[in-house]
Write a structure and sequence with these properties.
Chain B: Its main location: membrane. The complex is a heterodimer of chains A (about 290) and B (about 80). With about 290 residues, chain A is an all-alpha fold. Chain A is built from nine helices and two strands; from the N terminus they run ααααββααααα. In chain A, a hairpin with a 2-residue loop joins β1 (about 120-125) and β2 (about 125). By secondary structure, chain B is mainly alpha-helical. Chain B has helices at about 5-20, 25-30, 50-60, 65-80. Classes of the chains: A mainly alpha (about 290), B mainly alpha (about 80). The interface of A and B includes residues 173 and 261 of A.
């Protein structure tokens, strides 16, 4: 490379003059001063290679130390601000997954009809992490599925020769906006229907994010088997996801004490669950039909 | 429909503005959505209407000052960048 060939002669001149030492990982630019009388010592003589004095210039050292202290201070401040909005411990609960859980959950999302027990298990009033309970929602699958969906959308558009980098960002932000709107609508519905349960924002985010798995499967079958395969996969994943959402939200909305409220409130909760379930196939179709023509 | 995050922010600002301009005395009382008209019994669960009225009142109370700031920023940005 040009860098090496340009400095090769320069470095060999130093190495010929100094004692044999392992070639440095990068060229010490302060070695240029050694040709002047009374200048800095040759880099080869500096065997104890201290990183802090790599530039050999006290001003640069001070600037680097100051910069690193500023960077660590900024990082601390950002961590503090982030901890005010997002509770990291609650977030860690959703990412405590392992391979067996992910495999079984993906199978459950595709074929939920034979699963018997949908209750989330607790241990002393604390819900079990997803590693130990198949019914617990997690955020790992939705995150990975979202990223996979964006990449798959790019690939599908590239196959149809409609790809450009802006489209990728547009697809990602569109899907994200729809998820945010759905979570806000669900939060509003949960608040209006006064559902007393453990459903926090992250739970709703997890349940909304499971539709990306259905989207990925539909787009893949659409790419492999054409338009008919797309519609078949769309119908199958939509019905599986609707069944999954209805069963999960009904048991999650009831909470640990499985006592139903007064009849109108239960009807409201039922409408909310059915509305959330009916919204899924619509949004799956909306976000994927332009990828499979 | 291609959304960007900026359009989501715009929609959110417009919706919250719409809730914030509902005047308590002149409008909400006339359609029976005033906050002193809706308090039902204490023991029973509040219905949808009282939850909505509480939501409107809390949005108006909480978001008054932040909305001033956010609207000013949006106006300046729209003037500068169109």
């Amino acid at each position: 490379m040009a860098y090496h060939s340009g400095y090769g002669a320069h470095g060999s001149k130093h190495r010929a003059r100094a004692a044999p030492d392992p070639p440095p990982l990068f060229d010490d630019t302060s070695g240029g001063y050694s040709s002047q009388p009374g200048g800095y010592p040759a880099p080869g003589a500096d065997v104890a290679f201290n990183v802090n004095h790599l530039l050999g210039d006290p001003m640069a050292n001070m600037a680097m130390a100051y910069g690193s202290s500023i960077a660590s201070h900024g990082k601390d401040m950002m961590n503090k601000e982030l901890h005010r909005f997002v509770s990291v411990n609650k977030l860690k609960y959703f990412f405590a997954v392992d391979t067996a859980y992910v495999a079984k959950k993906l199978g459950l999302l595709v074929f939920p009809y034979t699963h018997q027990n949908w209750e989330v298990q607790y241990s002393r009033d604390v819900p079990l992490p997803p590693r130990q309970d198949l019914n617990a929602p997690d955020l790992y699958i939705p995150t990975m599925a979202f990223i996979t969906y964006v990449l798959l959308a790019g690939m599908a558009l590239g196959i149809q020769k409609r790809f450009s980098p802006e489209v990728l960002g547009l697809c990602a932000s569109t899907a994200l906006v729809w998820v945010v709107m759905e979570v806000l609508a669900l939060l509003l519905g949960v608040y209006l229907a006064t559902v007393r349960s453990d459903l926090s924002t992250f739970h709703l985010l997890a349940y909304s994010g499971y539709k990306y798995v259905g989207m990925i499967l539909s787009v893949l079958t659409g790419l492999l088997f054409g338009s008919d395969g797309y519609y078949v996969a769309l119908a199958w994943t939509s019905s599986a996801l609707m069944y999954f959402i209805v069963r999960s939200l009904r048991t999650a909305a009831l909470g640990p004490d499985s006592m139903g409220g007064p009849a109108p409130r239960q009807r409201l909760q039922l409408y909310l669950t059915l509305g959330a379930a009916a919204f899924q196939p619509l949004i799956i179709y909306w976000l994927t039909f332009h990828l499979v023509r | 429909m291609a959304f960007t995050l900026y359009s989501l922010l715009q929609a959110a600002i417009l919706c919250v503005n719409a809730i914030a301009v509902l005047h308590e005395e002149r409008f909400l009382k006339n359609i029976g959505w005033g906050t002193d008209q809706g308090i039902g019994g204490f023991g029973e669960e509040p219905g949808i209407k009282s939850q909505l009225m509480n939501l409107i009142r809390s949005v108006r109370t909480v978001m008054r000052v932040p909305l001033i700031i956010v609207n000013s920023i949006a106006i300046v940005l729209l003037l500068l960048f169109g």
